[in-house]
Write a structure and sequence with these properties.
Elements lengths: L10 E7 L5 E8 L5 E7 L7 E5 L1 H9 E5 L4 H8 L2 H9 L11 H10 L2
Antiparallel strand pairs: 1-2, 1-5, 2-3, 3-4
Length: 115
């Protein structure tokens, strides 16, 4: 079976939402009918959330999320992927009207640049 961006079933990868900056740990698997199924867990939100994607929802996931890495080291995991403060600075402290947060570009440079 072709898993596209996923190497094979039972693969754990890390993705980021292009709009919100929420990082997800994504587990690719096959459902009972043989279709690709994604189970995701958020990493950098205040409370952990789980999502499941099947069939057409997998295509929407691939459209709205960007691949980050497959096997992060401990430093990258703690400083970027699971960093709730970094996400908070993006969400609530955008550099607008004198706020001292970070821009969307700075956030995504950190997410992509420290692998």
């Amino acid at each position: 079976m072709d898993f596209g961006k996923f190497i094979d079933a039972d693969t754990t990868t890390y993705w980021v939402n292009k709009k919100t900056g929420t990082t997800h740990m994504v587990f690719a698997d096959v459902d009972w009918s043989g279709n690709l199924k994604l189970s995701t867990t958020t990493l950098n939100l205040r409370y952990e959330r789980d999502y499941f994607f099947r069939k057409d929802a997998v295509d929407r996931f691939l459209k709205n999320y960007e691949f980050v890495c497959e096997n992060p080291n401990v430093v990258f995991w703690s400083k970027v992927l699971a960093n709730k403060q970094l996400k908070s600075e993006l969400s609530w402290g955008l550099k607008t009207k004198g706020r001292l947060g970070i821009t969307k570009e700075e956030f995504f440079n950190k997410v992509k640049g420290e692998v």
